[in-house]
Design a protein that fits this description.
A hairpin with a 4-residue loop joins β2 and β3. The chain is built from 14 helices and 12 strands. The termini are far apart. The strands form 3 sheets. A 7-stranded parallel beta sheet has the order 5-6-7-8-9-10-11, covered by helices on one side. The protein has 431 residues and is an alpha/beta fold. It binds D-glucarate (GKR) and magnesium ion. Magnesium ion (MG) binds next to loops.
């Protein structure tokens, strides 16, 4: 006779949310520049027998507010009650309003209209981690099983300054990158350390001609590696169409050069490189619209705001049905997010592009032992129970203390840029 494994010991007794801040280099983007501290939050879901499931998500003030509201919603549930958790979050967590001012599109995770999806994602990852620990299975097995042994990531290059304004701490080891030669040097160094086999350049920073020159220099230095350019909608339609003529043969995909789905749809009629986005398709409504506008053909998914790992698997099915490709978007993050991304990417057959990750830009982490290891540009899919990483509580305490002391409560790349250049215009498209 079969015996259920559900029992009182696995009832969820507590949810903890710890905001953290970690050092982040002066990376330039369409909105401005990264602040010296990036914010995240670490979620712990604890069962009656003391097991702890973990997740990592956004750490800005509005997100902390809704996470706080969600903390009591898991009362009388076990880690296996994902559907009820989801229903409770959708009923109790308001997804209203818009985004965070000028960065509304550049950082889709800051949209408050995605509150419920973001909270569900954080709780789901921690609950799946617990399920895996209880069953002795890695999270990817709970999602249907891995189709690959390692998940490839791309070398994510940024224009950057050597130091932050006012030097809040010693400069990072990457140095300045403002010219095509320096960008190639950054790529060489990142590829030497991590073994990446494709390259993404964050654009929308320099004049388009300079960014095209950087792509050409990368092509020359890495004749066979796929290249991507992401100006984060900072190019007008006209600029994007003109640039496409030079970039068509160089790019694996052309990511969000120009604002809005209508603009991207028009651009798609003038370029050959496929268009990809993490800006104009970030909700199911936008997905639906894209099916008729045919604006983009590659969706950059992100479990943190698409409603979790299972929702990302469903999204992948939708992409397949609509003949779209899928890749993965990232924001500044640590090892827990990287492992969640790796588990979900491992089970999606159609996720054939290398995923984005900011991980090489981070020096600190909250996980036990060494930072996550890359082999030949890929993260080996864990075979140990759950997510395959645990919290180091000494490191967590240090990063929480940094949060308390750093004074940053919401990401503000524009405000930070104005400390370097008070006249900096954040309006988009700038070029
Ligand atoms: O970290 O500056 C950054 C990126 O620009 C990030 O905010 C974007 O959301 O990486 C992202 C992207 O692909 O657009
Ligand atoms: Mg992007």
């Amino acid at each position: 006779m079969s015996q259920t494994i559900r029992n009182a010991k696995m009832m969820i007794r507590q949810v903890r949310v710890t905001p953290i801040a970690f050092r982040d280099p002066p990376l330039l983007n369409a909105s401005g520049i990264h602040e010296p501290w990036a914010l995240r939050s670490i979620i712990e879901v604890e069962t009656a027998d003391g097991r702890i499931g973990i997740a990592e998500t956004y750490g800005d003030q509005p997100m902390l507010k809704v996470l706080e509201q969600a903390r009591t919603l898991l009362a009388d549930l076990t880690p296996f009650d994902l559907t009820v958790m989801e229903e409770r979050v959708r009923k109790n967590i308001l997804s209203t309003g818009g985004g965070a001012g000028v960065q509304i599109e550049l950082a889709p995770g800051s949209h408050t209209n995605k509150n419920a999806d973001k909270v569900i994602s954080a709780l789901e990852v921690a609950m799946l981690d617990l399920q895996g620990q209880i069953l002795g299975l890695p999270v990817c097995d709970l999602l249907g099983g891995a189709v690959r042994k390692a998940v490839p990531y791309s070398a994510y290059l940024f224009y950057k300054y050597a130091t932050h304004v006012n030097n809040p701490y010693p400069a990072d080891a990457w140095g300045e990158a403002l010219t095509p030669t320096q960008i190639v040097k950054q790529a060489q160094s990142m590829i030497a350390q991590y073994g990446f086999k494709s390259i993404k350049l964050k654009g929308g920073v320099m004049l388009p001609a300079q960014e095209i020159a950087a792509i050409k220099a990368l092509r020359q230095a890495f004749p066979t590696l796929p290249l991507r350019l992401d100006p984060n909608a900072n190019w007008s339609l006209e600029t994007s169409i003109a640039a496409a003529k030079e970039l068509d043969d160089l790019l694996e995909y052309y990511e969000d050069p120009t604002p809005g789905q209508i603009g991207m749809a028009e651009l798609s009629r003038h370029c050959e490189a496929p268009l990809a986005t993490n800006m104009v398709v970030t909700t199911m409504e936008e997905f639906k619209r894209n099916a008729s506008t045919h604006a983009v053909s590659i969706l950059l998914s992100d479990h943190h705001y698409w409603g979790g790992l299972r929702a990302t698997v469903s999204l992948a099915r939708m992409c397949e049905v609509f003949g779209m490709g899928m890749s993965m978007h990232s924001n500044s993050h640590l090892g827990i997010s990287l492992m969640a991304m790796t588990h979900v990417a491992a089970v999606i057959p159609g996720l054939t592009y290398a995923c984005d990750t900011h991980y090489p830009w981070q020096e600190e982490d909250v996980i036990k032992g060494d930072r996550v290891r890359f082999e030949d540009g890929a993260v080996p899919v864990p075979t140990t129970p759950g997510l395959g990483v645990e919290i180091d509580y000494v490191k967590l305490a240090v990063l929480h203390q940094q949060y308390l002391e750093c004074g940053i409560r919401n990401r503000d790349d524009l405000g930070q840029m104005r400390k370097y250049d008070p006249d900096f215009q954040g309006s988009s498209p700038r070029f």
